[in-house]
Specification:
By secondary structure, the chain is an alpha+beta fold. It is built from three helices and seven strands.
Length: about 180
Amino acid sequence: MSGADSWEGILDEDEKILWQGMPDGRVTIRAKNIVTVLFGLGFAGFAVFWMVTAARAGGQFWMFGLIHFGVGLALAFGGAFGSAWRRRHTWYTLTSKRAFIATDLPFRGRTLKSYPITSSTVLDYDAGPPASIMFNHEMRRRKNGHYRVDVGFERIENGAEVYRMMREIQKGQAA
């Protein structure tokens, strides 16, 4: 999303774009991903064992294991590669009033969310590298309750400069 015409009808008349960027799309492995990867590989491995055993008995019953094998692989590699893939389809914009996060994901389509930056907005800055600035959160639903997901500009290259601009917006000094 670049160019003044693409923002027509979205920005207020007195609102200016200060910065635009994308998150780092590299694959990162974190401690929480390792457990999911290992569980997924174990799940897929057991599915292979089950399919081989069922195939020896004859018939087509072994094919029911393909679903479990696919789920195991999705668990193993979705956790490691899914967030990097999502970041590669995400764009960030900071204006003199708001932060925008745009995504274009297959099956979900395009989304554009805006978050006002006010004097009461809590900015959580992680210098990285790469840097991340969290400025909001969303509550998401799961089967037995809700969980919190931080929202912000993840894994950006020039985080210190963007953080400085966000602090200026909070003070009412944005350009």
